[in-house]
């Protein structure tokens, strides 16, 4: 009876593996001597990794304990959460006048996000060039620009909103200023990174044709980075639509102010209507923003 063809093919390979194993076992003492770290049961990097994991786990557990995290409280609160969901149904503004009021506030929120983002981009543009190493060679200017952008973007939008509400008073103007200040630092940093990744060849072409440094920036760098800038600004506008809702709660205008008021007076059906209105608006802006970004920088290649 003939042996299966697969068995016949595998026999030489098994013999080869056996011979390699025997050779390795014969040379094992020399291998241990030459590669002591590889044969050590617990390597130095492995021990450091275990210690780091243990420290992170201890910090994680300590954080849970210190912040009073409790699964029992969370499960007990689900009943109350279910009550809120029942009270929210059906979502309704109540009256036509209130519906128009909410729509006006929603438009105000979108306007706050748009104006704040545009102003932030206008401020971030020159600082982005100052913070880019391939544009400004002076280390002091570069360092100060970077640290200024880091400082501005280190303060959250909500804190900027609280500051501006106390400076210019309640209303959408404070919201515009809060988003402008918060995003100017972040956009400036992103702009500078985009400028630093720009190709040198167009710049060298302009310089070799007799152009100055400003001409090199205008005709060599700016055409490369403008699509990236536009894409980043559109993304921030989309994100700021949500942020403008939050800062409205602290008095910076927009629909957040009405949302806070309806929650305070326990008008849950109105709250549900406002939440749905915000979600629909963000979804529409997200879709439009994605299409515009795709039109500007092109579609991303899909994985095959």
| Helix percentage range | over 70%
- The geometry reads as extended
Output the radius of gyration: 30 Å
The N- and C-terminal alpha carbons lie at a distance of 47 Å
Main sheet properties:
none
Residue runs with pLDDT of under 50 for 5 or more positions: none
Oligomer type: single chain
Structural class category:
mainly alpha
Got a strand count? Answer: 0
Order of helices and strands: HHHHHHHHHHHHH
Mean pLDDT: 84
Strand content: under 5%
* Number of distinct helices: 13
Summarize the structure.
The protein has 304 residues and is mostly helical. It contains 13 helices and no strands.
What does this structure look like?
It is a single chain. This protein has 304 residues and is an all-alpha fold. The chain is 81% helix and 0% strand. The chain contains 13 helices and no strands. The longest helix has 37 residues, at 213-249. The two termini are 47 Å apart. The model has no long low-confidence stretch (mean pLDDT 84).
Short key terms for the protein model shown above:
mainly alpha, extended, 304 residues
Please describe the topology of this protein:
Elements: H1 5-26, H2 28-34, H3 36-39, H4 44-66, H5 71-87, H6 96-130, H7 139-153, H8 157-168, H9 172-196, H10 201-208, H11 213-249, H12 255-264, H13 268-297
Helix pairs in contact: 6-9, 6-11, 7-9, 8-9, 9-11, 10-11, 11-12, 11-13, 12-13
